[in-house]
Specification:
The protein has about 375 residues and is mainly alpha-helical. Helices cover about 50% and strands about 10% of the residues. The chain has three domains: about 50 residues, no CATH class; about 90 residues, DNA polymerase, domain 1 (Orthogonal Bundle); about 140 residues, hpI Integrase, Chain A (Orthogonal Bundle).
Length: about 375
């Protein structure tokens, strides 16, 4: 391995040969421009050689941040993330990252360039959480730039990430939930709303639930797949996003009964539709057996919550209500976490511990009682 030093005005040009590209056969070099004395240039040569021997080749090419992000989306994100996640990544890159830092050379990217990205996001009226998502996507992409030996370090690591204000999940009163269920039962979506509330499943998990995943005898269902709708791609069935999301969920007697009623109604619809029925084995389907379209459910949901006088309630809030009710009853957080499919119990506690205010008081009273029993 050879190093070259050449005087250029008031600086030194430093180059180190690092062999030929195994694909193109072209000569490859690492280069730097160094200001100072010759000994500084010689030190830079030694540093480049050390980097190369450590497996860190960071040539100062002309690739821009925008070019790299396109490459990362194509070569990594598209094949290693869910379609919905990839679409969100592509949107963040296109709308927020490329317009601000896309023209900067990747090798020249510094933390100072990155911070304005988050400021511009909030100046557009978007939330700090959106800015945080931008930070996470950029940091993940630049992490791969380091792994691919395009950068020696990740400049996003030195940037202060946005800190969105965390709002506590508002608990829904049981009387409001009963009124909601009564309203839902006036529509074909009554069983779906009831099962969502009594199991805590995500919308995609409900849409992907099959009859083969429901064990009526043992009162349990198993989350095995999800169903998502993406414009331009249609319905996408895939495994849940994490291994903890693939899980059994115990069913209450009322949940089992509602599922049985749903099964009977579906068989009646199948007979009525005849050959037009598309049997995909889904628990929650439209009148022709096809997957439910989220827009159709959202339209129905607006009518349901309006009739129940709960217009601000989202469908996803049924999942929060399920967890909140369990926590308020003193159910162990580990059980709640398993039912929700969270990756760790700490996530469950972080989100829902505020709905069980008596837990701290009970813990303090328990210690007091224990110490009193220990006295003579």
């Amino acid at each position: 391995m050879r190093g070259h030093i050449r005087k250029r005005g008031d600086s030194w040009e430093v180059r180190v040969d690092i062999g030929r590209d195994p694909v193109t056969g072209k000569r490859r070099q690492m280069s730097r421009s160094v200001r100072g004395r010759k000994r500084d240039a010689e030190a830079a040569v030694a540093s480049l050689i050390s980097q190369h021997e450590a497996g860190i080749d960071a040539p100062r090419g002309k690739q821009t941040v925008g070019d790299f992000l396109k490459q990362w989306l194509k070569d990594y994100a598209q094949t290693n993330t869910a379609p919905k996640t990839f679409r969100r990544y592509e949107e963040i890159v296109r709308l927020h990252l490329t317009p601000v830092i896309g023209e900067i050379r990747l090798s020249k990217l510094r933390p100072l360039h990155i911070q304005p990205v988050y400021r511009k996001v909030t100046e557009q009226g978007l939330s700090a959480r959106t800015a945080l998502h931008c930070h996470r996507v950029l940091r993940e992409a630049l992490h791969h730039a380091v792994k691919w030996q395009l950068l020696s370090q990740n400049p996003a690591d030195a940037v202060e990430s946005p800190r969105p204000t965390r709002s506590e999940m508002a608990a829904v009163a049981p009387d409001d939930l009963k009124r909601l269920l009564d309203s839902a039962d006036q529509t074909r979506y009554g069983p779906l709303v009831t099962v969502a509330l009594l199991t805590g499943l995500r919308m995609g998990e409900l849409f992907g639930l099959r009859w083969q995943d429901v064990d009526f005898d043992n009162c349990v269902l198993r989350v095995q797949q999800t169903c998502q709708w993406l414009s331009g791609m249609g319905f996408i069935f895939r495994q849940p996003k994490s291994y903890r999301s693939v899980r059994p969920v115990a069913l209450s007697p009322d949940t089992v009964e509602r599922l049985r009623q749903c099964r009977v109604r579906q068989l009646e619809e199948r007979l009525a539709a005849g050959t037009a029925y598309e049997d995909k084995g889904l628990v929650f389907a439209d009148a022709l057996g096809r997957p439910l379209h989220p827009h159709t459910l959202w339209d129905a949901w607006r009518r349901i919550v309006t009739a129940a006088n709960l217009p601000r309630l989202r469908f996803h809030d049924l999942r929060h209500a399920h967890a909140s009710l369990l926590m308020a009853q003193g159910v162990h957080p580990k059980i709640v976490s398993e039912r929700l499919g969270h990756s760790s119990v700490s996530i469950t506690l972080d989100i829902y511990s505020h709905v069980a205010p008596n837990l701290q008081a009970d813990a303090a009273a328990g210690l007091d009682a224990l110490l009193k029993r220990g006295k003579a």
